[in-house]
Amino acid sequence: MLLIKEQLTESALTSLFSGAALAVRIPSYFPGDLCERLGRRVLASIRADPASPRRIYLSNVRPFTEVAGDSTARASYLSTAAAAMERLRGLCAPFLSPADRLRCELDEAWPGGAKLLRFQGRPLVFGMVRVWETGAQARPHFDVIGELLTSTEEVGHLVDQLGVNVFLSTVDGEGAVEIWNRGLEDEDRRRHGVAGTYGYRRELLGEPSLVIRPQVGDLVLLRSSRLQRPPPARRSASRSPRVRRCRRSTPTQSRPGRAC
Description:
It is a single chain. This protein is an alpha+beta fold. The chain has helices spanning 10-18, 32-48, 64-67, 71-92, 98-109, 189-192; strands at 2-4, 23-26, 58-59, 114-116, 118-119, 122-123, 128-133, 160-167, 177-180, 210-212, 219-223, 227-229, 239-249, 257-259. The longest helix is centred in the first third of the chain and has 22 residues, at 71-92. It has a single domain (2-249), classed as Sandwich (Jelly Rolls), CATH 2.60.120.620. Strands 1, 2, 3, 4, 7, 8, 11, 13 and 14 form a 9-stranded mixed β-sheet that branches. A 3-stranded antiparallel β-sheet has the order 10-9-12, with no helix packed on it. Helix 1 (10-18) links the parallel strand 1 and strand 2. It is built from 6 helices and 14 strands.
């Protein structure tokens, strides 16, 4: 269910898309000293910007799934997406950002290549930062963009989706990514009291199929079309920044994947 690799490979990606693996973990993907440096810069940047989204986590940008159904919010997102990626690049300077590094490696590893997912000719953000503070906790959910934009040319051919995270900070011994090998069609939304893809009740799910305890600098790729919950932040002094982005692709090797 979990593959541990030294580097990103075509075989690892194929295992995810085929369902042979629920997740791939690459330990120490981003150096620990750079994680600490970038984490400080990211946190300061987000706190200094009054426009930064503040939900159950702090972030540099709203998730596209949150704005996809609102034409005004979607237009605002698309008009600022490129600038958001450039800001993250600047925070990492003079080093390569983990988002940019991964984009290159995905393009090189997948036979059909990989490119940014675009909507109406504009890119979606690849490099969303989330900062989880004391007591913050997400509920189990799916990340399935096709549920929101099923009829559009940009996503109409997509059949699966990967969530990709680089952990800049973790809570030692407490944070765990939980994954249940269950798709949207496997869960009764009415039983959970949800209408969409977020907010499933943990107590109704039973034990997860896979539990991952990431360390600082780890890269974790998972099938985000499977039910998942990111690690909670429990310690009183904890802040857990991570760089998050999702890659979507068809399972055919001849066609390029899409990254966002």
